Amino acid sequence: MLRKLHGLPGLVAALFLVVLATSGVVLSVVPTLERSAATVPAAGELSVADLAEHVVANYPGTEQIARSLSGEVVVYYSRDGQPGADRVNPLTGKGIAPYQPSAWFRWVKNLHRSFLMDDAGRILAGVLAALMVLICLSGAFLLARRLGGWKAMLRPIAGSGSPRIHAELARFAVIGLLLSALTGSYMSAVRFGLLPEGTITELSFPAEVSGGTPAPAGSLSALKSVDVNELRELVFPYPDDPMDVYSLSTAQGSGFVDQATGELLQYQPRSAGSKFQHWMARLHTGEGLWWLGLILGLAALTVPMLSFTGLQIWWQRRSSAISLGESASIEAADTVILVGSEGNTTWGFAKDLQNKLNQAGKKVHCAPMNDLAEHYPQASVLFILTSTYGDGDAPSSASQFIARLEHFQADDGLKFVVLGFGDQQFPKFCQYAQDVDTALRSKGLKQMHPLTRIDRGSATQFQEWGEAISERMGIPLALTHNPAPAVTSEFELVERVDYGVAVNAPTSILRFKPVKSERKLWQKLLFQNRQNLPDFEAGDLFGVAPPGDRAARFYSLASSASDGILEICVRKQTHGICSGYLHSLKPGDRISGFIQKNPGFRPAGGATPIILVGAGAGIGPLAGFIRKNTERNPMYLYWGGRNPQSDFLYRPELGCYLDDHRLTGLSTAFSRSAEKNYVQDAIIADEPALRQLVEAGAQILVCGGRDMASGVRQVFDSILKPLNLDVEELRNDGRYLEDVY
Ligand SMILES: Cc1cc2nc3c(=O)[nH]c(=O)nc-3n(C[C@H](O)[C@H](O)[C@H](O)COP(=O)(O)O)c2cc1C
């Protein structure tokens, strides 16, 4: 719902919003330009009387002096019967230049206010401003949900590509955009009478005027008592009409001034409503608040990019949407599958399950979890397949599920199974699936099979779960869904470096070049994936299926697309089909593969010190991070191998990285050498230095086998103890990341 509230207005209004925002950016510099050209006297330095005296000395035919909120003073005068207007220096009253408002800015203002279409355009601009309020608010809620609550709004944002850019820009700009949209909506609502206007009472001409001989403007007491910075406008009396008066308008109110006595007549302070309206306009335009104008302009500058990335996200989501096969009705279904998904990948698994159950003769009803019915009269099994989002929260298609469960009537014969989809990198791995499992049990439903968690869409884990369910239900259920994108790219092996044969740990660094083929124009326009030149970062995963096998295996990437090479570091497993296949490749051989993003495993960036820990082939992504560290931020590597003569992976590269300071420090440990050390020992040896780094905000990234990762966690727990910290706490702050296999 929240996503629709955000996306739909965005899609409908994107183009108009870009026009509004771009013209807003141009207008946002006006207050700064005006302010830089204006001379603003210090408070108390110059009164309106002084200003009038200086101006009249230079412009004897002065009719009006106007001062903008930016401090620009313009005198309107008549000379030899001809009207004129000059910008003047308030301190001297001397003219600076003829006053000529910019025709270009006027055109942009018209475009911004009304799309150059008068009232119809103004109404459209008002509606767009209101839509923008909706987009900003729903976007802020989505962002808070994604980051794990309002308190976590400043947390590093995981992810990459358009979703990450969209979220980063939105976080930066949302307050500015919301302010512009709210004030713009208010101004439109007032203009079209939807909100009351702040009353500005028209002053009637004073009944009693002295009619005496006019005194010089500089001597009039009412003008002397007003600081020039308060002035809005001073209209001079008609020459040779002793019964006429000065009309004075200031920030506080307006009134008349007797030209002979200097007395203030019929003064009217501004009403609270008028002040409010005035401030809303200032907060929208930044008039007189040049710094705010620039902030609002910067925020508006993000709108074209937000629209573009928003459109890309929508398109990607649409492209990955799964159309479900025929679904039995709620009344007729003997099996129900409910799906909780945000990015649609879980639907692919659900569809496979539904197809296989159909093939086994079941009548399956499949729906989003939010569509939980009150009763499934014929159903004996309820499958829940759900992902987890935010910080252990429900994905959007399951957000109402727990609430709806209150009204659910379960038959005695109904059993349930929960299958969670998540990512082990997140501290609350498959937490929502766990919550659903608990909620169903507390509701009194019987579990048919224990909760199972699938990590990063593993086809193998899904298949294994299918086998277990198959046994429970007594039906064949060969689940084969592999969420790999249908489109793979071709890669050619250009180089391999082999290590570790002598210590029974054959490990190769394999470097591939993508085989190029250009995208067609329509594919580019429709934001289609680059078919053969995928975008990837070190730490993302490379999916490869060995010949004759549909299930892909994943290898952490040791390079980024910008390196121009796709690099993986693969240890040949005993009986490993895929690792054996990769190890058999010779330069010139081609393979097909695809990229799976792994946004949860990336160094924080900026000056944050990074501690990299790995063992064996786990060095792959870590080497990729170091290669990318061209800004020479502090980066330390702790790595464990078997023997320095045989499997010191990346030895020459690491030497170069140390020399050119992409790597700040390197500690190694070898288990089959004289020292017989593991990476944990190398970490303990540097305990005080590491503690200091963590105290200074360091982030730790660990890559390698499960046992090594668990040992490293224990060691860090003990190192962190004196700081009253532990790995779990760092993990919650995104400062302890693992890529474990
Ligand atoms: C912003 C974001 C937050 C996530 N939070 C969690 C989480 O807290 N726990 C977890 O196990 N997985 C988390 N994941 C991983 C997803 O649950 C996982 O990728 C899942 O397969 C997505 O399925 P879906 O595309 O059907 O929504 C998160 C993913 C993203 C992009």
From TrEMBL:
Family matches, as SUPFAM superfamilies: Ferredoxin reductase-like, C-terminal NADP-linked domain, Flavoproteins, Riboflavin synthase domain-like
Lineage, top-rank taxon, reads Bacteria
The UniProt entry, under CDD domains, shows:
SiR_like2
- Which residue windows are transmembrane per the record? 123-144, 289-315
Name the UniProt key words of this record, in alphabetical order. Answer: Electron transport, Flavoprotein, FMN, Membrane, Transmembrane, Transmembrane helix, Transport
Q: Which PROSITE patterns match?
A: FAD_FR, FLAVODOXIN_LIKE
Q: What is the E.C. number?
A: 1.6.2.4
Fetch the PANTHER family from UniProt: NADPH--CYTOCHROME P450 REDUCTASE (PTHR19384:SF17), NITRIC OXIDE SYNTHASE-RELATED (PTHR19384)
Protein name, as recorded: NADPH--hemoprotein reductase
